[in-house]
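Good morning N.,

You mentioned wanting to compare the apo and holo forms, so I went ahead and generated the holo version with pyridoxal-5'-phosphate. This is what I fed in:
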Amino acid sequence: MPSCRTQPTGSSLYSASSTTAPSHNERGGVSPQREGDGRLSHPQRGAGDPESYDDVLKDVERVIMPGVTHWHSPNFFAYFPTATSYPSMLADMLCGAIGCIGFSWAASPACTELETVMLDWLGKMLKLPDCFIAGTDGHGGGVIQSTASEATLMALLAARCKAIKRVQSTNPELSESEICSKLVAYTSEQAHSSVERAGLIGGVMMKKVPTDDKYSLRGPLLKKMIEEDKAAGLVPFYFCATLGTTPCCSFDNLMELGPICNKENIWMHVDAAYAGSSFICPEFRPLLDGVEVC
Ligand SMILES: Cc1ncc(COP(=O)(O)O)c(C=O)c1O
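and this is what came out, ligand included:
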Protein backbone atom coordinates (compact mmCIF):
# COMPACT_ATOMS: atom_id res chain seq x y z
CA MET A 1 0.00 0.00 0.00
CA PRO A 2 1.43 3.42 -0.89
CA SER A 3 2.63 5.69 1.87
CA CYS A 4 0.25 8.35 3.16
CA ARG A 5 0.35 12.07 2.27
CA THR A 6 -1.87 13.34 5.09
CA GLN A 7 -1.59 12.66 8.80
CA PRO A 8 -4.44 10.37 9.90
CA THR A 9 -5.62 10.40 13.47
CA GLY A 10 -6.58 7.36 15.52
CA SER A 11 -10.13 8.58 15.85
CA SER A 12 -10.48 9.09 12.08
CA LEU A 13 -9.30 5.53 11.46
CA TYR A 14 -11.65 4.27 14.14
CA SER A 15 -14.67 6.12 12.74
CA ALA A 16 -13.81 5.12 9.18
CA SER A 17 -13.62 1.48 10.12
CA SER A 18 -16.70 1.52 12.31
CA THR A 19 -19.06 3.66 10.21
CA THR A 20 -18.16 3.27 6.54
CA ALA A 21 -16.99 -0.32 6.44
CA PRO A 22 -19.44 -3.22 6.53
CA SER A 23 -19.69 -4.80 9.95
CA HIS A 24 -18.60 -8.34 10.69
CA ASN A 25 -22.24 -9.39 10.44
CA GLU A 26 -22.47 -8.18 6.85
CA ARG A 27 -19.21 -9.78 5.76
CA GLY A 28 -19.00 -13.47 5.02
CA GLY A 29 -16.86 -15.68 7.23
CA VAL A 30 -14.26 -17.24 4.97
CA SER A 31 -12.38 -15.12 2.43
CA PRO A 32 -13.50 -15.86 -1.15
CA GLN A 33 -9.96 -15.29 -2.44
CA ARG A 34 -7.83 -17.96 -4.01
CA GLU A 35 -4.11 -18.23 -3.45
CA GLY A 36 -2.27 -15.43 -5.22
CA ASP A 37 -5.36 -13.20 -5.72
CA GLY A 38 -4.21 -10.81 -3.01
CA ARG A 39 -0.75 -10.44 -4.47
CA LEU A 40 -2.25 -9.51 -7.86
CA SER A 41 -4.40 -6.73 -6.42
CA HIS A 42 -1.50 -5.04 -4.63
CA PRO A 43 0.63 -2.54 -6.56
CA GLN A 44 3.75 -4.37 -7.68
CA ARG A 45 6.04 -1.57 -6.51
CA GLY A 46 6.06 0.61 -3.41
CA ALA A 47 4.74 4.09 -4.09
CA GLY A 48 6.99 6.91 -5.15
CA ASP A 49 4.16 9.40 -4.68
CA PRO A 50 2.28 9.32 -1.39
CA GLU A 51 -1.50 9.00 -1.60
CA SER A 52 -4.18 10.72 0.43
CA TYR A 53 -5.34 9.08 3.63
CA ASP A 54 -8.82 8.57 2.14
CA ASP A 55 -7.31 6.63 -0.76
CA VAL A 56 -5.26 4.50 1.62
CA LEU A 57 -8.45 3.64 3.52
CA LYS A 58 -10.18 2.76 0.24
CA ASP A 59 -7.26 0.41 -0.49
CA VAL A 60 -7.84 -1.29 2.85
CA GLU A 61 -11.43 -2.01 1.79
CA ARG A 62 -10.51 -2.94 -1.81
CA VAL A 63 -7.29 -4.89 -1.34
CA ILE A 64 -7.11 -6.13 2.23
CA MET A 65 -10.67 -6.88 3.32
CA PRO A 66 -11.48 -9.42 0.54
CA GLY A 67 -8.53 -11.49 1.77
CA VAL A 68 -9.48 -11.43 5.43
CA THR A 69 -11.11 -14.40 7.10
CA HIS A 70 -13.55 -12.86 9.56
CA TRP A 71 -13.22 -14.90 12.72
CA HIS A 72 -15.70 -12.52 14.39
CA SER A 73 -18.40 -13.07 11.81
CA PRO A 74 -21.50 -14.93 12.97
CA ASN A 75 -21.19 -16.77 9.63
CA PHE A 76 -17.82 -18.25 10.55
CA PHE A 77 -17.92 -21.68 12.17
CA ALA A 78 -14.47 -23.09 11.43
CA TYR A 79 -11.85 -23.91 14.06
CA PHE A 80 -13.07 -22.54 17.39
CA PRO A 81 -14.23 -19.20 18.79
CA THR A 82 -11.15 -17.08 19.30
CA ALA A 83 -11.92 -13.44 19.00
CA THR A 84 -10.42 -10.25 20.21
CA SER A 85 -12.18 -7.89 22.62
CA TYR A 86 -12.69 -4.16 22.75
CA PRO A 87 -10.39 -3.75 25.82
CA SER A 88 -7.64 -5.74 24.08
CA MET A 89 -7.90 -3.54 20.96
CA LEU A 90 -7.46 -0.45 23.15
CA ALA A 91 -4.52 -2.11 24.89
CA ASP A 92 -2.95 -2.87 21.49
CA MET A 93 -3.33 0.78 20.49
CA LEU A 94 -1.68 1.89 23.71
CA CYS A 95 1.22 -0.56 23.27
CA GLY A 96 1.68 0.62 19.68
CA ALA A 97 1.71 4.24 20.82
CA ILE A 98 4.25 3.57 23.58
CA GLY A 99 6.38 1.59 21.12
CA CYS A 100 7.38 -0.79 23.83
CA ILE A 101 10.23 -3.22 23.10
CA GLY A 102 10.38 -5.80 25.86
CA PHE A 103 13.06 -8.31 24.90
CA SER A 104 14.86 -7.91 28.23
CA TRP A 105 14.11 -6.29 31.58
CA ALA A 106 16.41 -3.35 30.82
CA ALA A 107 14.85 -2.79 27.38
CA SER A 108 11.63 -1.74 29.11
CA PRO A 109 11.37 -2.57 32.82
CA ALA A 110 7.64 -1.76 33.02
CA CYS A 111 6.94 -4.27 30.27
CA THR A 112 8.64 -7.18 32.05
CA GLU A 113 7.23 -6.24 35.45
CA LEU A 114 3.69 -6.01 34.09
CA GLU A 115 4.07 -9.32 32.26
CA THR A 116 5.19 -11.04 35.46
CA VAL A 117 2.42 -9.53 37.57
CA MET A 118 -0.31 -10.24 35.02
CA LEU A 119 0.77 -13.85 34.59
CA ASP A 120 0.60 -14.21 38.36
CA TRP A 121 -3.00 -12.93 38.17
CA LEU A 122 -3.71 -15.54 35.52
CA GLY A 123 -1.95 -18.29 37.51
CA LYS A 124 -4.02 -17.41 40.56
CA MET A 125 -7.24 -17.31 38.52
CA LEU A 126 -6.38 -20.82 37.31
CA LYS A 127 -5.58 -21.85 40.90
CA LEU A 128 -2.14 -23.07 39.89
CA PRO A 129 0.10 -24.30 42.69
CA ASP A 130 2.40 -21.68 44.29
CA CYS A 131 5.48 -22.96 42.45
CA PHE A 132 4.00 -21.50 39.22
CA ILE A 133 3.67 -18.02 40.73
CA ALA A 134 6.50 -15.44 40.68
CA GLY A 135 5.20 -13.60 43.73
CA THR A 136 7.63 -11.09 45.19
CA ASP A 137 10.65 -13.39 45.50
CA GLY A 138 10.75 -14.29 41.79
CA HIS A 139 10.39 -18.07 41.99
CA GLY A 140 8.09 -19.57 39.37
CA GLY A 141 6.29 -17.07 37.17
CA GLY A 142 5.39 -17.05 33.51
CA VAL A 143 6.32 -15.43 30.22
CA ILE A 144 4.06 -14.72 27.27
CA GLN A 145 4.81 -16.53 24.01
CA SER A 146 3.23 -15.46 20.73
CA THR A 147 1.55 -18.80 20.09
CA ALA A 148 0.93 -22.16 21.69
CA SER A 149 3.22 -23.75 19.09
CA GLU A 150 6.02 -21.45 20.16
CA ALA A 151 5.44 -22.27 23.85
CA THR A 152 5.68 -25.99 23.10
CA LEU A 153 8.89 -25.47 21.13
CA MET A 154 10.42 -23.24 23.84
CA ALA A 155 9.68 -25.87 26.48
CA LEU A 156 11.17 -28.60 24.29
CA LEU A 157 14.36 -26.60 23.65
CA ALA A 158 14.73 -25.80 27.35
CA ALA A 159 14.17 -29.46 28.25
CA ARG A 160 16.71 -30.54 25.60
CA CYS A 161 19.32 -28.16 27.01
CA LYS A 162 18.71 -29.43 30.54
CA ALA A 163 18.88 -33.08 29.43
CA ILE A 164 22.13 -32.57 27.50
CA LYS A 165 23.77 -30.98 30.55
CA ARG A 166 22.52 -33.77 32.79
CA VAL A 167 23.83 -36.53 30.50
CA GLN A 168 27.16 -34.73 29.99
CA SER A 169 27.66 -34.40 33.75
CA THR A 170 27.93 -38.19 34.00
CA ASN A 171 29.26 -38.87 30.47
CA PRO A 172 31.60 -35.95 29.64
CA GLU A 173 33.00 -37.81 26.62
CA LEU A 174 29.65 -37.58 24.78
CA SER A 175 29.15 -34.69 22.35
CA GLU A 176 25.90 -32.71 22.17
CA SER A 177 24.96 -34.31 18.88
CA GLU A 178 25.59 -37.82 20.22
CA ILE A 179 23.28 -37.08 23.15
CA CYS A 180 20.64 -35.46 20.91
CA SER A 181 20.49 -38.58 18.77
CA LYS A 182 19.43 -40.53 21.89
CA LEU A 183 16.90 -38.04 23.26
CA VAL A 184 13.27 -39.05 22.94
CA ALA A 185 10.13 -36.97 23.50
CA TYR A 186 6.54 -38.19 23.80
CA THR A 187 3.09 -36.86 23.10
CA SER A 188 -0.38 -38.24 22.46
CA GLU A 189 -1.45 -39.35 19.01
CA GLN A 190 -4.20 -36.71 19.40
CA ALA A 191 -1.75 -33.84 20.06
CA HIS A 192 -1.71 -30.80 17.78
CA SER A 193 0.68 -30.99 14.81
CA SER A 194 2.78 -28.22 16.39
CA VAL A 195 4.08 -30.74 18.96
CA GLU A 196 5.43 -33.00 16.23
CA ARG A 197 6.87 -29.93 14.51
CA ALA A 198 8.64 -28.89 17.75
CA GLY A 199 10.39 -32.27 17.68
CA LEU A 200 11.45 -31.73 14.06
CA ILE A 201 12.77 -28.22 14.75
CA GLY A 202 14.47 -29.38 17.95
CA GLY A 203 16.11 -32.29 16.09
CA VAL A 204 14.88 -34.95 18.51
CA MET A 205 12.76 -38.08 18.21
CA MET A 206 9.06 -37.47 19.01
CA LYS A 207 7.05 -40.61 19.72
CA LYS A 208 3.26 -40.66 19.60
CA VAL A 209 1.61 -42.56 22.41
CA PRO A 210 -1.76 -44.24 21.63
CA THR A 211 -4.79 -43.05 23.59
CA ASP A 212 -7.68 -44.91 25.25
CA ASP A 213 -11.29 -45.14 24.03
CA LYS A 214 -11.92 -41.54 25.20
CA TYR A 215 -8.85 -40.29 23.26
CA SER A 216 -7.10 -39.64 26.58
CA LEU A 217 -3.45 -40.50 27.11
CA ARG A 218 -3.07 -42.75 30.16
CA GLY A 219 -0.12 -43.46 32.42
CA PRO A 220 0.51 -47.19 31.84
CA LEU A 221 1.09 -46.84 28.07
CA LEU A 222 3.51 -43.93 28.51
CA LYS A 223 5.34 -45.83 31.26
CA LYS A 224 5.68 -48.89 29.01
CA MET A 225 7.11 -46.87 26.13
CA ILE A 226 9.57 -45.09 28.43
CA GLU A 227 10.79 -48.39 29.87
CA GLU A 228 11.25 -49.92 26.42
CA ASP A 229 13.14 -46.86 25.18
CA LYS A 230 15.43 -46.77 28.20
CA ALA A 231 16.19 -50.46 27.71
CA ALA A 232 17.14 -49.63 24.10
CA GLY A 233 19.65 -47.00 25.31
CA LEU A 234 17.50 -43.94 24.57
CA VAL A 235 17.07 -40.98 26.93
CA PRO A 236 13.43 -39.93 27.55
CA PHE A 237 13.48 -36.20 28.33
CA TYR A 238 10.22 -34.43 27.35
CA PHE A 239 6.53 -35.14 27.38
CA CYS A 240 3.74 -32.90 26.09
CA ALA A 241 0.28 -33.56 27.53
CA THR A 242 -2.81 -31.93 26.03
CA LEU A 243 -5.80 -30.62 27.94
CA GLY A 244 -8.39 -30.10 25.22
CA THR A 245 -7.05 -31.77 22.06
CA THR A 246 -7.73 -30.02 18.78
CA PRO A 247 -9.68 -32.84 17.04
CA CYS A 248 -12.15 -33.68 19.86
CA CYS A 249 -11.25 -31.75 23.05
CA SER A 250 -10.13 -34.85 24.94
CA PHE A 251 -8.04 -34.59 28.11
CA ASP A 252 -4.86 -36.48 28.95
CA ASN A 253 -4.76 -37.92 32.46
CA LEU A 254 -2.41 -35.59 34.34
CA MET A 255 -2.95 -37.45 37.63
CA GLU A 256 -1.35 -40.56 36.11
CA LEU A 257 1.18 -38.87 33.82
CA GLY A 258 2.68 -36.25 36.16
CA PRO A 259 4.18 -38.68 38.70
CA ILE A 260 5.71 -40.79 35.89
CA CYS A 261 7.45 -37.73 34.44
CA ASN A 262 8.64 -36.65 37.89
CA LYS A 263 10.09 -40.08 38.60
CA GLU A 264 11.83 -40.31 35.21
CA ASN A 265 13.16 -36.73 35.29
CA ILE A 266 11.11 -35.89 32.19
CA TRP A 267 10.09 -32.27 31.51
CA MET A 268 6.31 -32.22 31.25
CA HIS A 269 4.67 -29.51 29.21
CA VAL A 270 0.88 -29.05 29.25
CA ASP A 271 -0.62 -27.72 26.03
CA ALA A 272 -4.01 -26.22 26.87
CA ALA A 273 -4.20 -23.89 23.88
CA TYR A 274 -7.81 -24.73 23.15
CA ALA A 275 -9.45 -25.44 26.52
CA GLY A 276 -7.08 -23.65 28.90
CA SER A 277 -9.01 -20.43 29.46
CA SER A 278 -12.09 -22.42 30.55
CA PHE A 279 -10.23 -23.50 33.72
CA ILE A 280 -10.82 -20.00 35.09
CA CYS A 281 -14.48 -21.01 35.60
CA PRO A 282 -14.87 -22.93 38.87
CA GLU A 283 -17.10 -25.51 37.14
CA PHE A 284 -14.33 -26.39 34.65
CA ARG A 285 -11.32 -26.08 37.00
CA PRO A 286 -11.45 -29.81 37.91
CA LEU A 287 -10.30 -30.51 34.33
CA LEU A 288 -6.91 -29.10 35.36
CA ASP A 289 -6.67 -31.36 38.42
CA GLY A 290 -3.34 -33.12 38.48
CA VAL A 291 -1.28 -30.05 37.54
CA GLU A 292 -0.09 -30.02 41.16
CA VAL A 293 1.52 -33.44 40.76
CA CYS A 294 3.37 -32.52 37.55
C1 LIG B 1 -4.43 -28.02 21.48
C2 LIG B 1 -3.75 -27.05 20.57
N1 LIG B 1 -2.41 -26.87 20.67
C3 LIG B 1 -1.75 -26.01 19.87
C4 LIG B 1 -2.41 -25.28 18.91
C5 LIG B 1 -1.63 -24.31 18.07
O1 LIG B 1 -1.92 -23.03 18.49
P1 LIG B 1 -1.15 -21.76 17.91
O2 LIG B 1 -1.77 -21.45 16.60
O3 LIG B 1 -1.38 -20.70 18.95
O4 LIG B 1 0.29 -22.10 17.78
C6 LIG B 1 -3.79 -25.42 18.75
C7 LIG B 1 -4.50 -24.68 17.71
O5 LIG B 1 -5.50 -25.08 17.21
C8 LIG B 1 -4.48 -26.33 19.59
O6 LIG B 1 -5.80 -26.51 19.49
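The pocket of pyridoxal-5'-phosphate is lined by residues 147-149, 192, 194, 242, 244-246, 271, 273-274 (CB under 6 Å).

Happy to go through it together on a call whenever suits you.

Best,
F.
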